[in-house]
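The following record pairs a protein chain with its ligand, fe (iii) ion.
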Amino acid sequence: MIYKQFHNKVIVRIDKGEELIDCLKTICKTLDIKLGSIIGIGATDKITVGLMNTKTKKYQSKEFTGDHEITSLVGNITTLNGEVYLHLHVTICNVEHKALGGHLTSAVISATFEGIIDIIDGQINRDYNDEVGLNLLSLK
Ligand code: FE
């Protein structure tokens, strides 16, 4: 993983074999980024995505292996209990060019990942909301 900062933007390259979320978290911690957005594209051969079951309030996860393009990753950077918290959603496509996606849990990069982090000078925490079972943005 390698990155370069230009004012409030960080250009990110994540390499083959590296885990995407680990790398993005490390960059946020190293550069002390507590609020911002992330976009990216790339390729993965092992990815787990989730879907929130709103009745059980639990994520149903599914792993996909083999060649997939990360056609779009979008997400935000906030904090939970003061620690960096990434909320990332992803769309991938398989060898048949069919799109799949969900809430990103983990992804191993198979070729490269190219991301841009947009830093916002501030901090937004999250609070657990029992009604939906999620850590919601705390904006009060
Ligand atoms: Fe989500």
